[in-house]
Design brief:
35% of the residues are buried. The protein is elongated, with a radius of gyration of 23 Å. The chain is built from 10 helices and 16 strands. It is α+β, with helices and mostly antiparallel strands and 324 residues long. The longest helix has 14 residues.
């Protein structure tokens, strides 16, 4: 029977199927609570998309420690803050329904899923999960999330204990940092500019998060400086041969205050980023499906979908994305 409705024994059924799987699974499930790594013991190479936004983790609805257990087994973990779906693709079978991965889902809530082996539906479900792979969570991101995790209390939240829930102050921190495009070219510093640049570098050293493993960069800014520590900047860089390259996202760790040098007001911006190659502007624009001119101006990127697509094209691993 290619399609079947299940309302009893859902979690034993899904867990049994995952344990018997002989190839990686594709799962998108909003909440992944404490103990979920045992409830959903995914194979290495599987892809798991959850809602691991800061507010959800603080409420205990997604448990970073359990995500890290799967990551250590070789599972790729992604976060989609708007995720509400529950889709499990296990081999040639898909389970689609209401069940989060939690003790409450297994023991308390009345859940329902459709189990299907219809090839078209299974393929569409797998493609849906793959389409959500915007923010990948590596060890550093999971560690940062674990620091803000608070175990849940009370029914109504995954993994709750049944005790009275204490209201918590709503976080005002954004899910993502501000993201900018900056148009840059090779320039030669004057002697005074070089001296100021070196001073700023020394002053900013203490703010670096990855002094040994990430590339350190800087640039000089001659207009009103919009950048601040914690911003993410994608540098669109034109070299001496007029070749335009897009640099992987870098985090601003220090900004030297504006100062008058000669006839102009300048400031210096210091960044660090993972060691990845720059990509040609044309190939990035083609991957995004946008004109190159859309990437050739200094701007803050505020459209979330475009932000996610741009980071995905540039190979962002989310270590930048979870830092408040």
């Amino acid at each position: 029977m290619p399609t079947e409705f299940l309302s009893d024994g859902i979690w034993p059924e899904i867990t049994r199927a995952v344990r018997a799987a002989q190839r990686p699974c594709h799962v998108a499930v909003a909440y992944f609570s404490e103990g979920a790594s045992r409830q959903l013991p995914l194979l290495a190479g599987s892809r798991l998309v959850v809602n691991a936004s800061e507010s959800v983790v603080k409420r205990g609805e997604t448990c970073p420690a359990d995500l890290n257990k799967l990551h250590n087994r070789g599972v790729r973990i992604f976060s989609e803050p708007k995720l509400h779906a529950k889709v499990f693709v296990v081999g040639k079978t898909a389970f689609i329904g209401s069940a989060n991965v939690s003790r409450n889902s297994a023991n308390y809530w009345k859940e329902a899923v459709v189990r299907t082996t219809d090839p078209g539906v299974v393929k569409a479900a797998r493609e849906f999960v793959e389409s959500l792979h915007y923010i990948e969570l590596g060890p550093e991101a999971l560690e940062q999330l674990n620091k803000i995790y608070q175990p849940p209390t009370g029914f109504g939240v995954p993994g709750g204990t049944g005790s009275k829930r204490t209201p918590r102050k709503k976080s005002n921190n954004p899910t993502l940092p501000r993201l900018f495009l900056a148009q840059l070219q090779d320039v030669d510093y004057s002697e005074e500019e070089q001296e100021c640049s070196d001073q700023g570098f020394e002053a900013g050293k203490k703010y670096r998060k990855h002094p040994r493993s990430w590339i350190q960069e800087e640039f000089i800014w001659t207009r009103k400086n919009p950048y601040q520590r914690g911003d993410v900047i994608i540098q669109v860089y034109e070299d001496n041969k007029k070749k335009v390259l897009v640099t992987p996202p870098a985090t601003v760790y220090h900004v030297e205050p504006p100062q008058k040098i000669g006839r102009r007001q300048v400031s210096f911006v210091y960044l660090e980023r993972p060691d990845r190659r720059r990509k040609p502007l044309r190939s990035v624009a083609e991957a995004l499906g946008c004109p190159m001119k859309d990437l050739r101006k200094d701007q803050q990127i505020k459209n979330r979908d475009f932000t996610m697509n741009l980071l995905d094209v540039l190979g962002e691993d989310a270590s930048l994305l979870t830092r408040s």
